[in-house]
Amino acid sequence: xxxxxxxxxxxxxxxxxxxxxxxxxxxxGTEYVHSHDDEHKHSxxxxxxxxxxxxxxxxxxxxxxxxxxxxxxxxxxxxxLSAVISALKNxxxxxxxxxxxxxxxxxxxxxxxxxxDDLVKALDSFIFxx
Length: 130
Prior knowledge:
elongated; two-stranded antiparallel ribbon; disordered N terminus; 12% strand; single chain; 2 domains; Methane Monooxygenase Hydroxylase, Chain G, domain 1; alpha+beta
């Protein structure tokens, strides 16, 4: 079965035979090999909520930027910056919960063991911001 698909940001579009291992060469020269058999489907229940939270955090961060440009008191800026960081952390928690409840469950059911490794890497990065 031939599938015409786009496999990742910055890679070249190509005909892919489902199950066939193939190589991608990114614009920066990086190459990676994968197939489409073991990939799981991403099912997100909270996409709209996540996007709304990110939009609010982005707007809040812009107002903090204006505070700095206006020379506002450092303690006020730090308090507002802390609020932005907290909003982003809570959004990250929502994404992580959604990911574990849906993506990881689907990956385990389909035998995608790399999803667990990816989750561990994501957790390591996310926990860094604690």
